[in-house]
Amino acid sequence: MVSHMLDPFSPDSYIVRAAAHIIGIEPRISRTLELPMALNLAQLHEVLQASFGWTDSHLHQFNIGGIIYGAPEFDDDGFTANRNFEATELRMVDF
Fold it and tell me: Which residues contact 30 (CB under 8 A, 6 or more apart)?
């Protein structure tokens, strides 16, 4: 009886706590972030920029399981062996 009253999973209803840190820097610089599950990777990039105080002055990409997500400009850089997918195509809930 109660099961029909429960809402199906909605990514907008959940958050994930994530730790982000910069590799290769001592002392370690890190941030703990609480992110909505509906956030896509392009939005995650914006959150990371703000949380570390960066000015978005470099191209970015995410490598997840060997698949590269990021700015479309990487497609033409000659460095990316795998197809680059738009960062807006994958959300936190897709992990």
Answer: 19, 20, 21, 22
- The fourth-level CATH superfamily of domain 3-94 is MM3350-like (3.10.290.30)
Residue 68 DSSP SS3: strand
**pTM of this prediction?**
0.73
d(CA 19, CA 70): 20
pLDDT in tens, 44-83: 999 999 999 999 887 778 888 888 887 766 656 555 555 5
Q: How many whole angstroms separate alpha carbon 62 and alpha carbon 72?
A: 12
Distance in angstroms (rounded) separating the CA atoms of residues 41 and 47:
10
Task: Report the run of H or E that residue 44 belongs to, with start and end.
Answer: helix 41-52
Domain ranges of the chain: 3-94
Structure tokens at 1: 């009886």
